[in-house]
Structures are given as C-alpha cells and as structure tokens.
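Fold it.
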Amino acid sequence: MRLGVSALVLALAAASCTPKPLPEEGSADARLYVERCGGCHVVYRPEVLKAKMWETMVARMEVEMSRRGVTLPPSDRDAILAYLKRNAGEA
C-alpha cells in the first residue's frame, strides 16, 4: 500500500509541473483548493486524477491533516472535492 501511494505522489508531481493556470482560476473553489492544500505541498492539477481517485486522495489527506492536528471543515472538504471532481481527468 505504501509503495502504491508513493508511486501515485511521484506521478502527480511529474504531471503537475506544467505552469498552466488551474481550471476555474480565481473562483472561490479554486482559491480554497490552493489555500488549504497548497500550504503543505504543491497544488496538483485536477486533471491528473479521475474523480474517484480524488475522493481517495482527499480522504487520505484528511487523515494526514488530522495526524498533524489540522482540521478541514466539512464545507471546505466538500467544496474542494467538488472542484477537483468537476475538473478531474477522464482517462
């Protein structure tokens, strides 16, 4: 499991290196994503994962945040996940 997560993180890092603007840049949901997620790591482009994988990744990050004593309000979680799923990759 740990190896799979490590491989996913490396794939995300490689795929998100292009300096294109994020989808819906400037929207409340995009700003929230950048603020809440970009404070700890690079902000990944939503299209690098399918919608279902974003559900898994957000759940995983919630566990990590909790471990560090950080909470993600349900409204923020829902907005971020909706943004990621709207802009997720399809392949």
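The CA atoms of residues 37 and 46 lie 12 Å apart.
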